[in-house]
Amino acid sequence: HRYSEALQVAEEALQMDSTSFRTIYLKGKIYFGNRNFGQAEQLFAEVLRRKRDYGYASRELALTYMATAKWAKALETFRSYFELDPSSGIMHQQYALCFAQMGMKDSADHYFQLALKELSSDRNRLENLADIHHYGLGDARTARTFYDAALQRRDNNPVLWAKAACSAVATGDRDRAAFC
């Protein structure tokens, strides 16, 4: 219901100003949020045809490609985003995920390390990175790096301690698991 209302508002805004790349972007976000990735992809691409340096559209288009497992296209789109914002830790994280999904472990590790450096003060992001590695990619060793970094910032979270212990067990470090 809200999805339909949001689309209607976007359509009305486009009728008032059909050249508004921001409204087209918003419409793409609405489609993405409703998992209509084909429409979202078309709209984000249209925004970039109109305004090539609109970083938000680059980011969302890359995320749309990721959602549809178009890893090479996601990487290409992230490259253009990095030209606009070369120090985006969140985008480095996404870039690394693309490499990981394509089986390019060295490149994935490189970008995950950049993400770790840039997101080092964000406990939730560190925990998310760890979860992605441990549960999504099956890489407990790298997950442990991120869990340990997150633990340095939030040591009173029992769920985080349990996850760190699981990654320690998975890497064969039972002493570390006992510590967690």
Question: What percent of residues are in strands?
Answer: under 5%
Mean pLDDT metric: 80
Number of helices: 11
The residue fraction in helices comes out at over 70%
> Radius of gyration over alpha carbons?
19 Å
Distance between the termini: 46 Å
How are the SSEs ordered, and which strands pair?
Blueprint: H1 2-16, H2 21-33, H3 37-50, H4 55-67, H5 71-84, H6 89-101, H7 105-118, H8 123-136, H9 140-151, H10 158-170, H11 174-179
Helix pairs in contact: 1-2, 2-3, 3-4, 4-5, 5-6, 6-7, 8-9, 9-10
What does this structure look like?
- The chain has 180 residues and is mainly alpha-helical.
- The chain is 78% helix and 0% strand.
- The protein has 11 helices and no strands.
What attributes characterize this protein structure?
single chain, 180 residues, mainly alpha, 11 helices
Compact overview of the structure:
By secondary structure, the chain is mostly helical. It is built from 11 helices and no strands. The chain is elongated, with a radius of gyration of 19 Å.
